[in-house]
Amino acid sequence: MSGRITSAFGAKSTAREVVAGHDLSGRVAIVTGAATGIGVETARALALAGAEVIIAARKPELGEEVANAINEEAGSKRVSFGMLDLSSLEAIRHFANVWGDRRIDILINNAAVMASPLMRTTDGFEMQFGTNHLGHFLLSVLLAPNLIAGAKASGKPSRLVSLSSIGHRRSGIHFDDPNYNTRPYEKWEAYGQAKTANSLFAVGFDKRFKDQGVHANAVMPGGILTPLQRHLPIEEQRALGWLDENDQPREGFKTTEQGAATSVWAAVGAELEGVGGLYLEDCNQALPWSKENPWTGVMPHALDPEAADRLWDLSVDIVGAGA
Question: What number of other Cβ atoms are within 10 A of residue 61's Cβ?
Fold first, then answer.
């Protein structure tokens, strides 16, 4: 790839290593789903670098506990909890309404549901597509004016980070029936569709807001064992090859600190200043996917600008915002 964007960091780098040397004082960041998993480490790294961080999640007890722990580590109150249920359009609108006109410099769409049984959101959408994509879509377009305000206030582009996954290789977008209203449900295909949507959303968002000082990139955090696997019995994790004979993560899996690194790089990396619409992994712009290395890389359908436009139009029709 000519002109590929790279950094000094890699697969084993941690979020704290990536943010070292950055002063985020005065910056405001929202991290969705940061009450567990790599979201915790993402929020911690940003806060310890001086940012004000809002943990936007649906579990107040966990969220408050994480916020208090990071604040104690930081020695000041930089992290707070904001109630956000991404499976409810009404709850998302309430979050944005409560937020008001405050600036945002960094929005990290980290929350996700993975490989769940067929479930429906409050509004009747398939849970993975509805939460991972449609919920984040509505949140992001409602907060777009705040990201624009952040760019104006700081004189530097604001950044949106959309967490995708190598799971995107399992499916493109089924535009005729994304919510499995008529076709048979398959949990991994549904996850793949949602993660493709997360990547295409970054392409679409960047296209629409880059001229107003906001850039968006998609991130593949890597394989990390976190509560994201809550719907997968250990037998299935073994069958997938994720665990060894002692039920330990196989070679190649990351710690949560390593899993948060690419999100943090997407949020602060100087190499990405003024750059958007990319798919990032291991703190670098991803290489094209290949059969030789099936666990890394990006497939063309996840960055297809026509599919991104089509998904944007579909999402606007569904949630009633973002036109």
Answer: 9
pTM over cut 0.90: yes
Query: CA angle, corner 110, sides to 40 and 251, nearest 5?
Result: 75
> Which residue bears the tokens 């959309």?
162
Q: Report residue 230 as tokens.
A: 């809550």
What are the structure tokens assigned to 233, written together? 């019995």
3-state secondary structure of 300: helix
Helices and strands per DSSP (H, E), number in the chain = 11, 8
| Packing angle, helices 136-154 and 89-99, rounded to 10 | 20
**What are the E-state strand segments in the chain?**
28-32, 52-57, 79-83, 106-109, 158-163, 214-220, 279-281, 284-285
CB of 184 closer than 8 Å to CB of 250: no
Choosing from 180, 185, 191, 279, the catalytic residue is 191
In whole angstroms, what is the distance from residue 44 CA to residue 261 CA?
Answer: 11
For 262, the 3-state DSSP assignment is helix
The amino acid occupying position 280 is L
Look up 279 and say whether it is catalytic.
no
Distance between CA atoms of 316 and 203, rounded to whole angstroms?
A: 15
pLDDT in tens, 4-46: 999 999 999 999 999 999 999 999 999 999 999 999 999 999 9
